[in-house]
């Protein structure tokens, strides 16, 4: 048995980023850059006005209400180079090229025009005002985004704005899932006493989809060693990570641990001092990883968020693999007995976290409305209302 922290350290120590592939930038959302991207152009690439108004020369404005002659216009998209002559102002619009010679733009609300002239009510007008300079955002040749950057919608827009259409990113892991349990019913089956509807595969597939992993290869095994070995071995052929659901405890019909061993995988840890999810197993065979998740649905999902997801994120190149963690006051008191750290289903509302009713490992109703997991180490087994607790935000 390892502690929660030891289990996490073992994941960090054993899992590494996968190889790189080239993707269209617009398809790379949620991927991590495998190399630095240098700016192929400066942004802005020409001096741009940031306001609708008048381009002027700051040294022409010697007092409030200076009057200048209006000469010409610069609108967004204009490609010809224009020059502003001293004593003149040029009509200009947001995003338009600032004419050569102009040093600032006065917004039109601070002016009044009459008979081809413009009265500037602003004084002084500092050079550079309302002008976006060449390379103000990024200089050509500079590192635009570093290796290891997680590509967000903002990153994608930024890259396309520099005429970058492809990026080298880490491949995301391919995942297989072996569902075990002779008690499981599937869509279309009739309700039978003693059997339950299988829910872990849909739940895990949804969690993976949220992480941008759409393809999950699912197989089912009967509760015997041969079927479990066959399922795990077939899944390991095509996938980087094999998950198993159920059959990892100590019962006579729990075969996953034995099957992982029979496949020649090395167990990195088995059993974590936590509730739920104690019988979690993590094993490795060459570059393939195995996670045996406890069958209890809430145990399975806690283990996914706390261990599997970080491993998948490390493989995808992420440097920040764990759920976003913060400290928050508990809205309700909570206490527990026992020797294991606890992960509670929680609901964050208005800067506080509510430990939800129904914390048993078979109960998913609390998870269905949770947006966070509360982590209580065994030393913090009595929480009073208002006490600070560690909250892990779920990626929903
Ligand atoms: N003698 C002991 N018994 C148990 C221990 C122990 O230490 N000693 N640990 C308990 C803990 S803690 C957990 S967690 C469970 C884990 O058991 P398994 O991983 O072997 O899971 P199963 O027995 O196969 O199933 C547990 C539970 O979950 C339901 N289940 C399984 N698969 C699914 C699925 N795909 N969809 C929905 N529900 C599923 C299953 O019917 C069981 O109710 O072991 C304890 N026992
Ligand atoms: O570790 Mo088990 O998940 O408590 O029921």
TrEMBL record:
<keyword id="KW-0501">Molybdenum cofactor biosynthesis</keyword>
<keyword id="KW-0500">Molybdenum</keyword>
<dbReference type="InterPro" id="IPR036688">
    <property type="entry name" value="MoeA_C_domain_IV_sf"/>
</dbReference>
<dbReference type="InterPro" id="IPR008284">
    <property type="entry name" value="MoCF_biosynth_CS"/>
</dbReference>
<dbReference type="GO" id="GO:0046872">
    <property type="term" value="F:metal ion binding"/>
</dbReference>
<protein>
    <recommendedName>
        <fullName>Molybdopterin molybdenumtransferase</fullName>
        <ecNumber>2.10.1.1</ecNumber>
    </recommendedName>
</protein>
<comment type="similarity">
    <text>Belongs to the MoeA family.</text>
</comment>
<dbReference type="InterPro" id="IPR036425">
    <property type="entry name" value="MoaB/Mog-like_dom_sf"/>
</dbReference>
<keyword id="KW-0460">Magnesium</keyword>
<dbReference type="GO" id="GO:0006777">
    <property type="term" value="P:Mo-molybdopterin cofactor biosynthetic process"/>
</dbReference>
<dbReference type="InterPro" id="IPR038987">
    <property type="entry name" value="MoeA-like"/>
</dbReference>
<dbReference type="InterPro" id="IPR001453">
    <property type="entry name" value="MoaB/Mog_dom"/>
</dbReference>
<dbReference type="GO" id="GO:0005829">
    <property type="term" value="C:cytosol"/>
</dbReference>
<dbReference type="InterPro" id="IPR036135">
    <property type="entry name" value="MoeA_linker/N_sf"/>
</dbReference>
<comment type="pathway">
    <text>Cofactor biosynthesis; molybdopterin biosynthesis.</text>
</comment>
<dbReference type="GO" id="GO:0061599">
    <property type="term" value="F:molybdopterin molybdotransferase activity"/>
</dbReference>
<feature type="domain" description="MoaB/Mog">
    <location>
        <begin position="176"/>
        <end position="314"/>
    </location>
</feature>
<dbReference type="Pfam" id="PF03454">
    <property type="entry name" value="MoeA_C"/>
</dbReference>
<dbReference type="Pfam" id="PF00994">
    <property type="entry name" value="MoCF_biosynth"/>
</dbReference>
<dbReference type="Pfam" id="PF03453">
    <property type="entry name" value="MoeA_N"/>
</dbReference>
<dbReference type="InterPro" id="IPR005111">
    <property type="entry name" value="MoeA_C_domain_IV"/>
</dbReference>
<dbReference type="InterPro" id="IPR005110">
    <property type="entry name" value="MoeA_linker/N"/>
</dbReference>
<comment type="function">
    <text>Catalyzes the insertion of molybdate into adenylated molybdopterin with the concomitant release of AMP.</text>
</comment>
<keyword id="KW-0808">Transferase</keyword>
<keyword id="KW-0479">Metal-binding</keyword>
């Amino acid at each position: 048995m390892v502690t929660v922290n030891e289990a996490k350290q073992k994941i960090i120590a054993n899992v590494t980023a996968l190889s790189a592939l080239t993707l269209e930038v617009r398809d790379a959302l949620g991927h991590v850059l495998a190399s630095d991207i240098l700016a192929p152009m400066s942004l802005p690439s020409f001096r741009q006005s940031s306001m609708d108004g008048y381009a002027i020369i700051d040294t022409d404005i010697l007092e409030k209400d200076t009057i200048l002659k209006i000469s010409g216009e610069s609108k967004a998209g204009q490609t010809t180079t224009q020059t502003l002559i001293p004593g003149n102002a040029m009509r200009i619009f947001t995003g338009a090229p600032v004419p050569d010679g102009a040093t600032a733009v006065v917004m039109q609300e601070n002016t009044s025009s009459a008979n081809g002239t413009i009265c500037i009510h602003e004084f002084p007008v500092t050079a550079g005002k309302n002008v976006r300079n060449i390379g103000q955002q990024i200089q050509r040749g500079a590192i635009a985004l570093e290796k290891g950057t997680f590509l967000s919608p903002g990153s994608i827009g930024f890259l396309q704005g520099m005429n970058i259409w492809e990026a080298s990113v880490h491949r995301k892991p391919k995942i297989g899932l072996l569902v075990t349990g002779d008690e499981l019913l599937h869509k279309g089956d009739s309700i039978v006493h003693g059997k339950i509807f299988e829910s872990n595969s849909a739940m895990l597939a949804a969690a993976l989809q949220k992480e941008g992993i759409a393809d999950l290869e699912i197989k089912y095994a009967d509760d015997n060693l041969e079927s479990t070995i066959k399922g795990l071995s077939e899944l390991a052929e095509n996938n980087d990570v094999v998950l198993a659901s159920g059959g990892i405890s100590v019962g006579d019909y729990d075969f996953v641990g034995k099957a992982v061993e029979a496949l020649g995988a090395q167990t990195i840890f088995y059993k974590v001092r936590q509730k739920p999810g104690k019988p979690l197993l993590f094993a490795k065979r060459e570059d393939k990883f195995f996670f045996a998740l406890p069958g209890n649905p809430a145990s399975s999902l806690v283990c996914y968020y706390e261990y599997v997801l970080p491993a998948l994120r490390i493989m995808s190149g992420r440097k920040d693999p764990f759920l976003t963690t913060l400290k928050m006051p508990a809205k309700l008191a909570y206490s527990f007995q026992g020797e294991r750290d606890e992960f509670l289903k929680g609901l964050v509302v208005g800067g506080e976290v509510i430990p939800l009713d129904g914390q048993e490992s078979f109960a998913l109703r609390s998870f269905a409305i949770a947006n966070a997991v509360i982590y209580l180490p065994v030393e913090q087994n009595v929480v009073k209302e208002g006490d600070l607790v560690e909250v892990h935000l779920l990626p929903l």
